[in-house]
Amino acid sequence: MLGNASFLKNIQDLDVASISDPKIDACDRIIRENNISYDQVSKVSKAAAGLYRWVAYVIDPEEPDQEDEEV
């Protein structure tokens, strides 16, 4: 999916304000319940790590970046 140009374009064009609170809460719950971290995701895929960073920002724009190294 991450290699699909239309998927990436859709993400870029998405109005973050249009994402409902229940969807944001569901994403947050999935991340917390599975103890998913940027470091874990980046070890598997740099592209997925970028998407994880975007989702984490959507969930909480005030949360400082937890990443140890630059991408």
Question: What features would you describe in this structure?
Answer:
The model has no long low-confidence stretch (mean pLDDT 86). With 71 residues, the chain is mainly alpha-helical. The longest helix is centred in the last third of the chain and has 14 residues, at 46-59. The radius of gyration is 12 Å and the shape is globular. It contains four helices and no strands. α2 (21-33) packs across α4 and α3 (38-44) runs antiparallel to α4. The chain has helices spanning 5-13, 21-33, 38-44, 46-59. It has one domain.
Keywords:
mainly alpha
Q: Please count the helical segments.
A: 4
The helix/strand order is: HHHH
Radius of gyration from the alpha-carbon trace, in angstroms: 12 Å
Mean pLDDT score: 86
The major pleated sheet works out as: none
Overall tally of domains: 1
Shape: globular
β-strand percent reads under 5%
Low-confidence stretches: none
Q: State the distance separating the first and last CA atoms.
A: 20 Å
In total, the number of strands is 0
Structural class: mainly alpha
Level of helix content?
55-70%
